[in-house]
From TrEMBL:
<feature type="transmembrane region" description="Helical">
    <location>
        <begin position="467"/>
        <end position="491"/>
    </location>
</feature>
<feature type="transmembrane region" description="Helical">
    <location>
        <begin position="70"/>
        <end position="94"/>
    </location>
</feature>
<dbReference type="GO" id="GO:0006508">
    <property type="term" value="P:proteolysis"/>
</dbReference>
<keyword id="KW-0812">Transmembrane</keyword>
<keyword id="KW-0328">Glycosyltransferase</keyword>
<dbReference type="GO" id="GO:0016020">
    <property type="term" value="C:membrane"/>
</dbReference>
<protein>
    <submittedName>
        <fullName>N-acetylglucosaminyltransferas-like protein</fullName>
    </submittedName>
</protein>
<keyword id="KW-0808">Transferase</keyword>
<feature type="transmembrane region" description="Helical">
    <location>
        <begin position="437"/>
        <end position="455"/>
    </location>
</feature>
<keyword id="KW-1133">Transmembrane helix</keyword>
<dbReference type="GO" id="GO:0016757">
    <property type="term" value="F:glycosyltransferase activity"/>
</dbReference>
<dbReference type="InterPro" id="IPR050321">
    <property type="entry name" value="Glycosyltr_2/OpgH_subfam"/>
</dbReference>
<keyword id="KW-0472">Membrane</keyword>
<dbReference type="InterPro" id="IPR029044">
    <property type="entry name" value="Nucleotide-diphossugar_trans"/>
</dbReference>
<dbReference type="InterPro" id="IPR001969">
    <property type="entry name" value="Aspartic_peptidase_AS"/>
</dbReference>
<dbReference type="InterPro" id="IPR001173">
    <property type="entry name" value="Glyco_trans_2-like"/>
</dbReference>
<feature type="domain" description="Glycosyltransferase 2-like">
    <location>
        <begin position="216"/>
        <end position="452"/>
    </location>
</feature>
Amino acid sequence: MSESKHFTVDIGEAPVYPSSEKPVSKRNWISDNARERASTFISDWTPFGLVSSYFVFSTCLYMYCTERLIAIFWFIYMCTNFYIAGATVLEAFMSVTPCREARKVVTEAEEKGWLFPTANDQLPVLDLLIVAYLPNEQDIIMDRALYALEQIDYPRDKIRINILYNTPKAIEPLETKLHALAEKYSHARVIKVPNSTSKADNLNYFFTLDTGSDLIAIYDCDHYPHPNAPRWAAERFMADKEVDIVQGRCIIFNSDETFLTSMIAVEFDKIYAVSHPGRATMWGFGLFCGSNGYWRTSLLRDLKMDGSMLTEDIDSALRAFSRGSKTVHDLNVTSYELAPTTFPAFWKQRLRWAQGWAQASMKHVKMVYNKPMEPLHDGYNRDFTARFGVLSLLLIREASYYLVTQYTCLVISFIIVKFPKSGEELWKLVYFQYPVSQWLFIISVICLIATLWITNQVKSEFVSRKMIILFSVLYPFYLILAATIGLYGHARQIVKYSSWNPTARK
């Protein structure tokens, strides 16, 4: 460490000085308040109106299309579904290799009595950041801080556990207890970030501090990092000097709380254990996903976080990739987190993600054709595979929301115009309107089964086979829901919706 003294930082509230302006009359205040509420109402509900109109208009349009035109649309949408299923299963098969390598590394370490390759005194200095917004996470922050301070297995002279938090109002006695941690634990640092309104503000403030670290790990407040996660990540950096970012696997541990959390747990296993490592292998680049990610300090301090982006983590990951950073997904760097337990909380979280992805996609899709700016590594040049991967991730993925929902509207129009009288008629109506549909549908189902079979092989200890089966049955509805959320995110971006809705944690 560059300094042996441990400290807490509490800047406190900025002083309020008397205003020299004339007081606002009660009538004007009521008028301004009414305008603000009206503006907020319009901003909140305009996206709903846009998405609802989209579904109604599209369904009505198909009701008046000719049979020949319907056949063309049907073929396009079935081909699209086939592409999505095919790309997904390819990612799944590509994930098999990194999964095997991760297991092999664990087996070798176990055989050596958990003796890691790098000696303790040679490990990089690590700043582990726990980022919190107290009003929403006041019930869990002390628990997570104590867990990180006491359970993480990393030499204490090589790690600092930094609790970064912001709050619009003082919360006592919690804040006093938090700051007292630095007196009890030599490797603790507690920072109340002044004038912060977001996670990006918290992080950017920390980046201005000279802590002397080699690596920075970022965790959301609801996470329990595996005790060995920082060590596994450090070993990846030590083994390959060109690695700039290590993204770990996030696992949902409250899967048995509600049906919703069980489905999210399966989704996270599919994303973090299958899709992310598979995509990194197939397209040649990985991504930092917001939490349980480790960065080289120099790179992260240089890039910082863009507070204007709703998903500043994805934006920072894409900015890093635009400069040729090497990001690896390590399945041994695991962390356990909470899933939203109610649908409204899930809906708010996913809408924020969807709009953030839309922002990031519009900003960074130019990587498909432009040249890398200020590459981090000599000789780096974005090849065709990586460019097509960017196209698939940013453009085709965003466009797929329209294709999936258009297919849904087409089916709804069939049901309205040709209402089925039996389950068999409904089955034929939805899937087998035209002969080519049979093959495309069957192949898509095989791809889905293969993807979920691979997911079952790497499922976490909190996911059961029954959960995976239920997720498989509901997968078509999951795709429609995800596509609708994606459209909603686009609608919010059109109206410049900018409210930040943090997820409540208990």
